[in-house]
Write a structure and sequence with these properties.
elongated; 185 residues; 44% helix; two-stranded antiparallel sheet; 4 strands; mainly alpha; two-stranded antiparallel ribbon
Length: 185
Amino acid sequence: MKNHIITAFRLTLVMLAVIGIYLLIVYGGSKVLPTNGNAEIIAQNGQKFYANIGQEFKSEKYFHGRPSSVNYNAAGSGGSNKGPSNTEYLEVVQKRIDTLKMEHPGMENTRVPVELVTASGSGLDPDISEEGALYQIKKIAQVRNISEEKLRDLVKNQTEKPLLGLLGPAKINVLKLNIALDQLK
């Protein structure tokens, strides 16, 4: 019995050391990031927005991000847990596709980018692909009376390239894109 207690105590000390070292590595690594491991807060018109949490944009004059399975509530992030073979989930996605095609005239024969009709695993993804932004240009140009070419340039300028040109996909933060859109003359 004494041997088991001593072994358990040693194992506990070793695991505390390993976990402590791991936490120090993660904490130190986060301090190297541009935001020092903190949320990126953007102040706009007297309000604060978190750029790393998906926002809901209802107006037709803005780019829209991914749908959220948690109604953009950061307190309860999570996916729907419904797989691609679930008929209820497929019906929801098909409704989103139909709605998107109806809201974007002239795009009926264009392939709908997947992130515009499916929620992310957290339900709070703040980014879309360049393809997702380009899909929405025609309608926003019409609503805002801005040339499509000007909007394409804006999307291109807001596209974040992969880290080192290799790691991860190119992406666009929807909040930053919409703020830049409001500043566009």
